[in-house]
Specification:
Four copies of one chain form a homotetramer.
Chain A: E1 9-13, E2 20-26, H1 36-46, E3 63-65, E4 69-70, E5 73-74, E6 79-84, E7 99-100, H2 106-113, H3 129-140, E8 148-156, E9 159-160, H4 183-198, E10 205-212, H5 226-235, E11 240-245, H6 248-251, H7 256-259, E12 277-278, E13 281-282, E14 287-293, E15 302-307, E16 312-316, H8 326-348
Antiparallel strand pairs in A: 1-2, 2-6, 3-6, 4-5, 7-15, 8-9, 8-10, 10-14, 11-14, 12-13, 15-16
């Protein structure tokens, strides 16, 4: 219970300032020659300290595989892995042992559990996503080779990448610090983030993810619809506030006559407002969705707050924090999507006699 | 696998033109005096033929409980129920046995399963949601009595209910056919839907749901976040295209300084852009979210399409269909939310020693 | 939670004197042409009133499929079914509304749930197994055609079928009322049961089940071992007290030198004390196991007992009861085994790249 | 899928000669002050090299907790742990890279997965049970303090501890190398094992486990019966061949009149052939069960066998192996039982309104 995936599952552990993060991937099929460099590469894309617009924390974020892989191939047995925590400055957090930071999970954890590892946010830290990147980048390798999963930053604050995704060159996603493949927009986003950072403030944005060449038939009719599984996964990302796929919230303004995707004779569709999914099942067109992220709650400015006892306190973010979580969330979205797809892809292999 | 819920689970069955729909609720606690009239009332809110702006199909949608309730109380054993199908005009669908309706699941089901009950869309029909309303309205009775769950139609096409939910009188939701508690907006929406209906067209919209008095502590830290469980449930509704909670997609445009919800001394917050959830766990403030629905794919106008063999055909909706799914989706959203909450509420009772 | 199966799952409901039993089979693959007569045939083998040595209750035990099957084939969507209760003589049970029958679940249900449908034992009735026979006999049809699953009564009280299973003709299992394929032993068993019945007493026994031609590779390495999944299923049968496979408890007396199964050159083994399973995974040899059943607790004789309040009462079975549950348990064991195998068989199809 | 437990779950990983074993315990309640010395103590009871009658391998088997515990208390978040492998003599196993050892899982793993970590049996090694002891001994601490779980060796080969468990002093279980609390029988068992060991042979036996003071109400009515959950867990232990509880296989020889447990006026029962469970639910009497273990398959004598290609080979156990697995299996049985009970105990807290 409370794992990622249905058949192919990921169970995880770890707290921000604990000894290590890690996870177990169950039911990974045997015989896959795994590319572990690629896994580390994805972790490197997520790790802190990559550029001037993300946190300056230094963590090597090195994954260590402990089981389930033998002579370079998966054995079909559980894959255990850990990522050790290295650069814990727990003292940076002693000021919040009793204080409740606004829009953080300090209060709710205390209320729910009656106890809380306050250091770096403990379990509520987004550092948990290292586990997902490991599992997702392995799971990606289970999908047919031509399946492409690309996410990019499509907005930062009020700055939107106005081009439709079809006009973007996804090979340029990692070419700039903000991971928006449109150079001009990227520049504006980077300036905005730098400005916001200087103010000790933070800013939100959206990530768009596009999945190409997904086979037809992925997703289950009821309670396992492809869009629902993707939504669930994405909405578990720490700062996620919204999810839409295909026409999304815009589709809610349209009429059926305009919204319906008419077929071509090869079973592709002329338009793709459906976002590649009909009845919860992929139809062979691009699957695309968008995730909204709120601005990071930790700001480097004094904020009025209260402590555990209800007394007024002032809290102020110290240490090294992300002014904008979006660039680092790009590999999280991509690899999380990969895990969801791999799980449903495997299941789909046994849905017919 | 592919049930609703984690501990309290709902497993369902049924196709549009099959014999019956039904479900099994597992792990429902014993000793609850259940109000079965309320369950039927919720079904009546969802059923077809209620007003001029929804489908004119007639189904009594009467739920029959088969087990798990004894002398008016739950016994702790599985609750089985059925809702018989009555008004099947399967002939209305013979024209689509081989044709693929645009933006329907005909093609994807055929591709996935190699076989498909085409009558009325078979398993892909939204009639499946009768099951959810039954289970959700029972589950609602597990929650503390003061928990209020109200959904309403917040937009139809380009017509939006501009008032914030705080200014609405939820007791007025059912007072008009479209289920928007703002009378003036409701009137506009109804006119719009009638106009659209006359054209044989359909229209989309959004539903906003507000949960009041939810206890603090509901939701799980990782892979069971309250927003993720709600998103998963909502995105399994047939026409749902998007989900957002709290500040949602708007929050993605904001800065941390403006977005953070500062505490009052009683642990409530001054603002509630968090939407009542922090770190995946309810904080005692209102939980609110919005779901986007696309326009119904079945339109009563000829559309070009193809058949199973790839030949051009013309399809045209016959029979009785909803020009706008929103009014009937209101009880679906409410009761589905209730089920999600009841599941996490029960689980929360065993998360501390 | 608390379903049968892992991927292919059965969720069930029903109480002895409720309206109906029923279940939902999830994730049954599409495209199987199902033999529903065979399902009914298996139910008929289980039903009461078949012979002089089982209960004389009359129930037609007719299964009605409500979904998931279209034009004779499975559609891949949930299969819902019900078996209506017909012959409820609830009054036979009014005397136990407050009394606790020895070795029944009256006391434990009351303690656990605080409420209990006492009529016919309610949920604790073995009538629940009708659901398992339906699901198991459908699941059996998913297995390769040459897989044979035969169970038979191998002992009643002190009367044992001394012949090893290899010397028995399984086609004779249903040729007599007790379902022991050795005619001579069967006769002794039948006489014994008749004698016991005359005394108003009941008697226990064992069932042996043999699975032939099971493909190699079925079962999972850890927490899904074939023997563990079989044991779990069998120990859920109401009167089951023990499970052993292969050499079983006898194997515990042996030494490794004598117990090890040496290989033939075709990878079969010379002996089969392993019972066709090594490391939790089938090895292609016969899988065989034995289940112990206690004597039915309801005896038609007065027994001292207590009621809910702790007062002394006398209870005496009334109505129509089985003097020996074994003959009717044979199809339960077979079909339950079939379900377990079909679930693991499907899963095994996705355990390799 | 394929975890231990239903709500409280254990997911595990590790191979005999991999880097480490480990696991994740999910949904462990918050606020428990954990005794980690006790966990290590239980591991020490299981570890190799404790006495002359078990394997002489040396492993410190030190558990390292990586998360979920803060300042000595559980936080309600996932508990991750590892036990590093230290004393891997992988060369001891190079001779079996291609050979199939009789009654081992070499052949079935190869057939199932097409690949196999042959070193020390890889995933099929009973070393996996270190994970279960860690999780079980933590879970034990969730149970009411007066719950006692004691297992002991009740037979080795043909040597049985004839005394009923009621006549044994469980405090003497660890007082001798074989873990049979009856000193006289223990001596005979030890002699027997030494003799067997000298021959390079191995021997089987049984373990009896007695649970005292278990609260009434533990276990679920259908598919979650206490005996079924225990059976499933026990039958997942590597060498387990059989499980029985209460009267077990002996009960199958009895009549209802003799087998029924009559009530005392305090709701206890005069006899306890039911083994403390009625209708799958604990009744407050002692729960007791017995597990049969086959002799270890690795014998230090040449055995004829075949290799992967079907060629004749001779295999001979090298290295350090257990002549009898029973003494080390005692803590496995106890702690596994504790995990099963803790899971069902937690669940029982939410089975009533």
């Amino acid at each position: 219970m409370f794992n990622l995936g249905n058949f192919l599952t990921l169970s995880t552990f770890g707290e921000s300032h604990g000894i290590a993060y890690g996870g177990i991937i169950n039911n990974f099929p045997a015989g896959l020659e795994v590319n572990l460099e690629e896994v580390q590469h994805q972790l490197d894309r997520r790790k802190p300290g990559q550029s001037a617009i993300v946190t300056q924390r230094k963590e090597s974020d090195t994954v260590k595989f402990l089981s389930g892989i033998f002579e370079g191939k998966t054995t079909g047995t559980p894959i255990g892995f850990t990522i050790e925590n290295e650069n814990q400055k727990s003292k940076d957090y002693s000021h919040i042992a009793d204080a409740y930071r606004p829009s953080h999970a300090d209060f709710t954890y205390d209320q729910k559990f009656g106890i809380r590892d306050h250091r770096g946010g403990g379990k509520s830290s987004a550092r948990e996503t290292v586990n997902w990147v490991v599992a997702g980048s392995l799971a990606k390798q289970l999908l047919p080779e031509n399946v492409e999963i690309n996410a990019y930053v499509s907005s930062v604050g009020e700055i939107f990448c106005e081009k439709p995704y079809q006009d973007l060159d996804f090979s340029q996603i990692d070419s700039n610090d903000v991971r928006c493949p449109d150079a001009e927009t990227a520049e504006k986003m980077i300036s905005k983030i730098k400005e916001i950072k200087k103010e000790g403030n933070t800013i939100g944005g959206t990530i768009t993810c596009v999945i190409k060449n997904l086979p037809v038939g992925i997703g289950e009719p009821v309670f396992g619809k492809l869009q629902a599984e993707l939504a669930k996964a994405m909405m578990n990302i720490n700062a996620a506030k919204g999810f839409e796929y295909g026409s999304g919230f815009c589709g809610a303004k349209m009429t059926g006559k305009d919204h319906n995707d008419l077929f071509n004779e090869d079973f592709s569709t002329r338009t793709n407002l459906s976002g590649g999914i009909q009845g919860g099942i992929s139809n062979g067109m691009d699957v695309y969705f968008r995730v909204a992220f709120k601005p990071v709650a930790t700001i480097l400015r004094p904020q009025e707050s209260i402590d555990k006892a209800g007394n007024s306190v002032t809290v102020e973010g110290k240490g090294r924090h992300d002014p904008c979580v979006l660039p680092r969330a790009v590999p999280i979205v991509e690899n999380l999507a990969a895990f969801v797809l791999a799980d449903l892809f495997l299941i789909n292999r046994i849905r017919r006699i």
